[in-house]
Amino acid sequence: MTASASNDPALWRGLLPWPGADTHKHQRGRLGVVSGGRLNTGAARLAARAGLRVGAGLVRILCPPDAGPVIAAAVEAVMVSDFETPEALADLAGPLDCVVIGPAAGLTEATERNLAAVAGTEAALVVDADALTLFKGRAGDLFAMLDDRDVMTPHEGEFERLFPGLLAEGREAAAVEAARASGATVVLKGRETVIAGPDGRVRVNRNGTPWLATAGSGDVLAGLIGGLIVQGMEPFEAASAAVWMHADAGGRFGPGLIAEDLPEQIPAVLADLR
Ligand SMILES: NC(=O)C1=CN([C@@H]2O[C@H](COP(=O)(O)OP(=O)(O)OC[C@H]3O[C@@H](n4cnc5c(N)ncnc54)[C@H](OP(=O)(O)O)[C@@H]3O)[C@@H](O)[C@H]2O)[C@@H](O)CC1
Ligand SMILES: Nc1ncnc2c1ncn2[C@@H]1O[C@H](COP(=O)(O)OP(=O)(O)O)[C@@H](O)[C@H]1O
Description:
This protein has about 270 residues and is of the alpha/beta class. It is about 40% helix and about 15% strand.
């Protein structure tokens, strides 16, 4: 049996980061998002915009050279840097507080090398999508790169690829075991998203809405988590707050929601939480 709590704002509202009168942007945290190639940049742009909206002071998309002109033409406040090699990516990630990697990254050796590069820096990680699926059948290789500052955000399909059969124990017990085994925070997404910490803490999120079942919605969540981590929230609390805010944003917009709409709801979500 696990002792679970519903993911209620009362648990983390007092931990939310607000800028002080003298705060400058670097003190609000620096987030990186690794993009896929030129035909696969939307996921990173969604995550980056979500990170900015939730309060990260600076957000930089890190991309292969072919994607640079595509991304630069499609963002304003988000910054863009390109990299040719994993070593160059590590140099860019080094000064950042957290890096999101996986959305539309591609199921390639390059993605694995890029993950290893950012994992070797001081930046915390939010590992999603292709950076999870890549490790189907060899999850230990992924866990060896993670620590307790990192967050994995699998949907059930991705979770099954990393932890075959574990969901049969129930979603909550499965997430707890996944966090223990990986040493990282696990966000098992779905109608009721489960947030589990490597120390055994677990919360079940219950304000979800099916309007969130739309392409790119998970990319926005990854950016929200990263955006709270860079502002100093610890990963389990950042994940809890981000999952609730993401669901609240979806519920506010309702019918017709597409992923692009979610970051635009965050100011109202934050204002009400404040
Ligand atoms: N704007 C952009 O640039 C966007 C880019 N994106 C990027 O596109 C890439 C490929 O994405 P993807 O959707 O094909 O990969 P993935 O989610 O693994 O699905 C593969 C199979 O897994 C299953 N499955 C899926 N969800 C499940 C669930 N909840 N619970 C259980 N099973 C589930 C399902 O299998 P089925 O049920 O059909 O048998 C499905 O067919 C990836 O890089 C991603 O980041 C997206 O983020 C969108 C926005
Ligand atoms: N029926 C649903 N009810 C509540 N939340 C949902 C539902 N379907 C999906 N979601 C949420 O939407 C997001 C989808 O993420 P994901 O599957 O990774 O999408 P993508 O890869 O397209 O970004 C997750 O946060 C998940 O919890």
